[in-house]
C-alpha cells in the first residue's frame, strides 16, 4: 500500500509538466476563466497554483537550530514589532534536526510571519512536526514560501483559526503532510503536498477552512481526509494520483467542493471520492468538478453511505484541445500539447473528430466495414461504429464498392426484399425483381422472401412438393418436409399414400400415418379396434421385450449423460482446485508469517500491559496503534481471501490460521476496551497538575509544555489512528463484511469518540494552567532579581529595623521569599500565619558563636534608605500593585 511504482511517478511527472505548461499560458489571464463545452472543460482557471512567478526569490539560507516559542517573551530577538503591519519575522533559516519540531509556536498573541525557510526532519523515522502551531491568537500567523520535508507531519495546527498558509512545499511526511485539529477559518492556497506516507491532508474537528489552488499528489493514503468537520470550502485544487480517495468524508457535513481536478486517485476503484457524512456538496449552482475518469454521461457517483454525487461533472483537458486527457491517454495521444487537428491514422478524421465520433484514432476503419471512418462521416454519412448501418446484411463497404447499393437504405430498389437477401440469392439489389419467379416454383421472388424459401430452388425443403404448391394448394410449410410430423414427407402423403399432410393420423385410429405405413397397414382405412386386437393376440411377448429394451436404452442414455456431466464438472472443479490450491499455499504461507509477527508483537503488548503500562505511555501507545493498523489490514486481506474461495478453503491449516487471527482480534479488542474503560483521565489530569504545582514551588524555570502534555498527546494520536483505520476498512471490503466489522468495532468506536473528547477538554485545561504558571514565573523572575539586592542588606541588617526589612520583603511572593531566605544565614526566624510573614529576632545570647560583628556604615545605610524609597514608589505604581 505504501509503495510508489515507476508508473505512478511517471504519471506525476506528466501531470506537473502539464500544469506548468498551462500555468505559463494563464499568467496573462484572469483567474476565473473556465470554458464549459458540452460537459467537458478546457482549464483556464488554475493560475496561482504554486507558479514560480508568485513565489518570492529566496535569499541564501542561514543554518539555525529548532525554534521554540511558547509565549510572546520568546519572540524577543526576532525582527519586527509583532503588529499586523510589522510582524515578527522568521525567515531564510535552514533548520535540519531530527530531535524536535522544526518551528513550534504556542500561546502567542503577536503577529508572526514565517517565510522562505528550509526545514528537514532528518529521516523517515521522525515523530515531530515541521511547523507546529498551537493555540495562538486568531489571525496572527502567516506561513509562506517554505520547504518542509521528512517530518512526521509537515504542518500541524491545533486550536488555531484565521491564519494564512501559501506557497509552501511539503514532501516525504511519515504521516500526513498537513493536519488540522480543532482549527477553523484558516486559508490554504497554492501549497504543494506530495509523497506523504499517509494522507496528504487530514482535517479533524475543524470547520470553515478554505483550500484553493493547492497541489495534493502522490500520497499513500487519501488526498484529503475529513472527520467530524463541517463548512469547509475547497475550490480549484489539483488532487492527483493518491493511492486512496482524493476526498474521504467521515461524519462530516456541509462541506463544499467545486472546480477541483481529480486525476487518477483510487485507481481501480469505482469513484475518486467517498462520502459517509451528510449534506456535503460537490457543486455550486451549475458548476461541479473535473473528474479524470468521468465517462461523459450523466452524474459522477461518489462512493460511501451518503449516496452522494456530482450532478455537473466535467472532463479534465489540461492541454485545452477539446479532448479529455483520459481519452487521449487511452488512445496514445499527447496530453500536453494541442493535437486536435492531427489525423493519427490518416482516415480523414482529425483526432478531435475521432473523439466526438467515438471512433478509434489509431485505426482508420473502426468498425472494419471496408470504409474509412472519414468516408463514413463525411462522404456516405454512415455510422463508423456499425459495420452494417442499415442492417440489411451487407457491410457498408460492400454496398458502396461492390454492389452500388445504398448503405443507409436496407432495400435500395424498394422491391420489398433487403439488399443482403437479394445478394445472397444472386438477385440485383439495385433492380426491382420482386414479381419474377427465377426457380419456376409458382412463388414470386418477394413471396419467397416473405415465406423464407429459396428463390433459386423450387422445392426448398426437398419434400417432393414445389414451394408454390405448398403455399397456394396444400397449405403446408415449404421449409419443413414433414409439416404434420407423422413420419411421412408432405410429398409422400400427397402423391403416394393420399393421406392428409396436415393431419398426422388421417384415419383417426390413434396410430400415426407413418407408423401404419411402416407396419404395412393402411393409414386411411384400419380401425383402432382391429389394430389393437391383432396386435394384442400376437405380440404380448414383443411388448414386454420392447418395454425392457426401452428401459435399458433410457437408463444407458441417462447414465452416459450423467457421466459426461460429472466428467465436465470434475474437470472444471479440478482446474479450479489446482488454481486455488496453488494460490492457497502461497496465501497461507504469507498469512501464517504475518500472524506469527502479529503474535510476537502481541506478546510484547501483553507484557507491557501487565507491567502497568497504559495508553498514556508513549512506547506502549505507539505499539498499540501500529499493531492495530497491521491487524486490521491482515484481517481484511484474510477475510477477503477466505470468503472469496471459501468452499475450497476447507483445509485445516487455513481454519487454524483463521482461528489464530480471530483470537488475536478478540484479544486486541478486549484489551482496547479494557484500557479505554479503565483509563483514568481525571487522575492523569491531577498528576499533571501536581507536577505543575511542584514545579511552581521548587523551580524557578518555566514548565515544559511538551513534556506535561505528552501523555494526553500520545493518547490522542493513538485514538485518532485507531478510529481512522476502523473507518477506512469500508474502502477495502464488501458491504456485508464491513457491516459485521463495524458492528464488532462499534462499541470501541463509541468509546474512542467519548475518550477523545474528554482528553481534549482536559488537555485544554492543563494548557490553561500552564499558561497561568508561566505568567507567575515571569513575575517571580522580576521579584527574584529584586531579591538579589537584599544580599547587600544582609551584612548590615542590624542597622535596619525588622519592620523595614519585612516591608521590603512583602513585595515578593511567599514561595520566592522562602526560596531566598532558605539560602541565607540570618539570626532571626520567621513563620507564616494566614499568608502573613512574622519575623522573630533571636535573643542576643542565641547568636552564633564566632559570628563577626558588622559595624555601622553610613554609606551603606544611605544606600539602603534610597533603595527602600525606590521600592516604596514602585509598590504604589501599576506594576507593583499587580505583583
From TrEMBL:
It is found in: Secreted. It holds the Pfam family Beta_helix. Residues 320-521 are annotated as: Disordered. Residues 77-204 form the Carbohydrate-binding/sugar hydrolysis domain. Coiled coil: none annotated. GO terms for molecular function: calcium ion binding. Keywords: Calcium, Membrane, Repeat, Secreted, Signal, Transmembrane, Transmembrane helix. InterPro entries: Beta_helix, Ca-binding_acidic-repeat, Carb-bd_sugar_hydrolysis-dom, EF_Hand_1_Ca_BS, Para_beta_helix_rpt-2, PbH1, Pectin_lyas_fold, Pectin_lyase_fold/virulence. Gene3D superfamilies: Single-stranded right-handed beta-helix, Pectin lyase-like, TSP type-3 repeat. The chain crosses the membrane at residues 7-26, 528-558. Residues 353-365, 402-411 have a biased composition (Polar residues). Residues 385-397, 483-495, 506-515 have a biased composition (Acidic residues). The keyword Calcium applies. Residues 472-482 have a biased composition (Low complexity). The keyword Ligase does not apply. This is Probable pectate lyase C. It comes from Candidatus Heimdallarchaeum aukensis.
